[in-house]
Amino acid sequence: MSGQDTEDFGAENLSEKSQMIPSLPPYDIDDQLLPKEPRSAWCCLAWTLVVVTMNSLVFFINLSLMFVIFTIVLLPTIVVVYFGFQCHSQVLHSAARYCKSILDDNSSSALIILGFVIMSPLIVVAMAIYCSLARRLRLFMCFQPYSRAVYKGVKWRWYEEGGLCSCAKGWNTQVKAWV
After folding, report:
1. How many Cα atoms occupy the beta-carbon half-sphere of 121 within 13 Å?
2. Measured at the alpha carbon of residue 112, what is the angle toward residues 111 and 114, in degrees to the nearest 5?
3. What pLDDT score does 64 carry?
4. SS3 annotation, the chain
5. Does the structure show a pLDDT above 90 at 110?
6. What is the pTM of this model?
């Protein structure tokens, strides 16, 4: 191989690599690439309390939404297991009429087993519903970074998206949750 061939090979290889490198980010003052000015100690403490309060509120909203969805979806399992344990003679042995006339120990055991068997797919369905709803409402975008409290001029995440947690922006109908 001659010297000309190796130089051409290196230049060709370099141009392929340069095409794979993404372009540089835009150097705009709105993109906040400049060094940020830190806040004073008391101001930082106050903003920290605001950010922590907002993040805690968003966390409890997510937690309550998850609790409601899981309770609704798992209600059949809860009912079946409850009646199975309530009517079994060695567990609670209720004196209710339906326990004496309809459910004996074998059918109570079958209800308990059925309840625990259908629990796994219902948990997957509940989690898929929660993830789909959280993605559509963009609930995870509501969490604010700690840098909001430390530096001046950091924009709220939802400010540029068109509303609180980007809910004002149109829903993306192409988003799908695969289980």
Report:
1. 5
2. 60
3. 95
4. CCHHHHHHHHHHHHHHHHHHCCCCCCCCHHHCCCCCCECCHHHHHHHHHHHHHHHHHHHHHHHHHHHHHHHHHCHHHHHHHHHHHHHCCCCCCCCCHHHHHCCCHHHHHHHHHHHHHCHHHHHHHHHHHHHHHHHHHCHHHHCCCCHHHHECCCCCCCCCCCCHHHCCCCCCCCCCCCC
5. yes
6. 0.62
Looking at the predicted structure, is the pLDDT value of residue 4 above 50? yes
Tell me how far apart the alpha carbons of residues 107 and 112 are, in angstroms, rounded to a whole number: 9
What span, in angstroms and rounded, lies between the C-alpha atoms of 115 and 90? 18
Tokens coding 135: 């993605």
Q: At what angle do helices 75-87 and 119-137 cross, to 10 degrees?
A: 150
